[in-house]
Each structure stands twice: as structure tokens, then as C-alpha cells.
Amino acid sequence: MRDVVEQLQRLGMSGYEAKAYVTLVVAGQPLNGYEVAKRSGVPRSTVYETLGKLVAKGAAYELRGSEEAVVYLPLPPRSLLERMRREFDDSIESLQTSLPTIVAPPGAPIIHNLKGTEAVLARAEDVVAAARADLFLSIWPQEMKQLSPLVGRAAERGVEVSVVHFGPAETRIGYLYERHFPVPNAIADNLDCSLLVVVGDGSEVLIGGFANGSAWGVYTEDPAVVTMSVEYIKHDIALQVIADRIGHGTFADLWGNDPELVRLRASHGHPADLLRAVGMSDH
Q1: What residue stretches are annotated with the Transcription regulator TrmB N-terminal domain (predicted)?
Q2: Alpha carbon of 197 to those of 14, 65, 179, 182, 219: distances in Å?
Q3: 22-26, 191-195, 213-217: least confident range
Q4: Angstrom distances, CA of residue 163 to CA of 32, 148, 155, 240, 264
Q5: CA angle 33, 6, 87 (to 5 degrees)
Q6: Most Cβ neighbours (<10 Å): which of 17, 48, 50, 192?
Q7: Region class of 68: left (phi > 0), else alpha (psi between -120 and 50), else beta
Q8: More confident residue, 259 or 148
Q9: What is the pLDDT of residues 108-142, one digit of tens each?
Q10: In b/e form, how buried is each residue of 6-22, taking b as 16+ CB within 10 angstroms?
């Protein structure tokens, strides 16, 4: 009986209602309020209120005798369960239409501005540690030295790791591509900083800049920024693969002399200025 009472509670009856209904079913004959209270354990002070609620729900009926004595009969269990099933199905059908209409619109994507080497690298570690499917990194040796243990563990747990590493790498993890074109020092000079980009599971990205002992950065879950960051790293990987295919000499000549490529590299210091502005922001 305890199990039946618990199941009825799960279907919406109160504890007292469930006990009173089960008592009526077990009795097999009409009972008055006093008898229901005595057999069920429902307090006499609340038994008539409880029975009234069962009647209101259609789970019990009132029978009045010739002397106006009131007794109660339960709705047969099979009928009760069928009624509950219909009501439950009706509620689900109604909610399928109404519930989606009250869902709050998506909030603005999370964005954190970061200042200082420790803060930037700590957030990068968070992204690496949380990855479960894939990681994309664009990284320099100094930052790789700190992040490589976590990146290695990510690879060990099955994360697909793709790394663009500026210059020779001491440790090779996952799919690692050493970027040689243009020369890493020339890249840093052109940007006026070294960039760190870490993307985890296509859902979050840390972008940082390091220069002269200072660091600035931003963390965000904005899908547009995350997608652009992944494509940025894939673009760099593609450049290194192409250089390997066509020959480094040919690629270096093209990179250094093609007027369109020279024009695209003419934004000296601009990325560093943008990151500094982010790091100084209070938002």
C-alpha cells in the first residue's frame, strides 16, 4: 500500500488524498469520514477537507443516506487511471504548444576581458582543460611551454588537437604545424605583439596578445568569434601545408614579393592596439 500511495503522489495527489483514496478502495464499501480517518491515518481535523478534494477531482463520490449521513465511494481504480492518463496526455499536448512560447530569448554571449599574463594563460588553461572533442591553437614557444602539459592530456583523452606553432617546437602534440612563413620574428614585429588563440570544442575561444612583459586578452563564447578564430587557425595550417607542397623557396618568394600579400601585411601594430584597448576596458 505504501508503494501505491507514493505512485499516486507522483501523479498529483497529496499524501493525505492518496491515503484516503487507497483506504476507500481497500474497504470495498462506503465509508464515512470518521472511518476513513481511523483506517488511513489522515487526521480527523482534515479528513473531510481531504475527501472533499477527492470528490472535486472526481476520484471519489459522496453518497447521502436517509438521515443525511454522508459516506464515500472511490472511483474504480481502472477508471481513475484512465482519467489520469487522459489528463496527463492533454497537459503534454497543451505544453508542447504553450511552453516554447515562454522560453526566454538567448542572452548575449559571454565575454570576459583579461589583463595580465597570468590571467590570460589561466583562461587559456581553462579552455584546454574543458575540451572534449577538438582543440585549435595558434601559439608561441613561451606560451606552449606552460600549456603543453594540459594540451598533452587533452590529446591523451581523445581530443583532436591542431596546433600552429611559431618556430621550432620542443614537444609535438596532435597535429602540430611549425609556422615558418613569414619568419616568426617578422610576424611579431608586424603585429607589435605575439598572438595566442585557443579554441575549444567550437564553442569558446581565448585570444591573447603578449608584448614587452604585458598581456591583454578576451574570452568569449560568441559563435561568430569562435568560428572566425577556428578559420584563422585553419588558414595558417593551410599555408604551411601549401608551402610544404610547392617548396619553401617558391612560397617565400611569393610571400615576400607578391604586391597583394605585401598590402595585406601593412597593418603594423594594429592588432596589438586593439588588444590593448580590450585589456583597458572596464566591460
Answers
A1: 8-77
A2: 56, 83, 14, 18, 10
A3: 191-195
A4: 79, 11, 12, 12, 23
A5: 85
A6: 50
A7: left
A8: 148
A9: 788 999 999 999 999 999 999 999 999 999 999 99
A10: eebeeeebeebbbbbbb
Q: What's the average model confidence in pLDDT over 101-106?
A: 80
Distance CA 238, CA 177 (A): 10
Asked if residue 151 lies in contact with residue 169, where contact means CB atoms within 8 angstroms, the answer is no
- What's the pTM value of the predicted model, to 2 decimals? 0.58
SS3 of residue 61 by DSSP: strand
- Nearest CA among 14, 53, 13, 15 for reference residue 33: 53
**The pLDDT value given to residue 131:** 96
Tell me the pairing of strands 204-211 and 111-115: unpaired
Angle subtended at Cα 167 by Cα 162 and Cα 170, rounded to the nearest 5 degrees: 75
Residues 94 and 46: their CA atoms lie apart, in Å, by 33
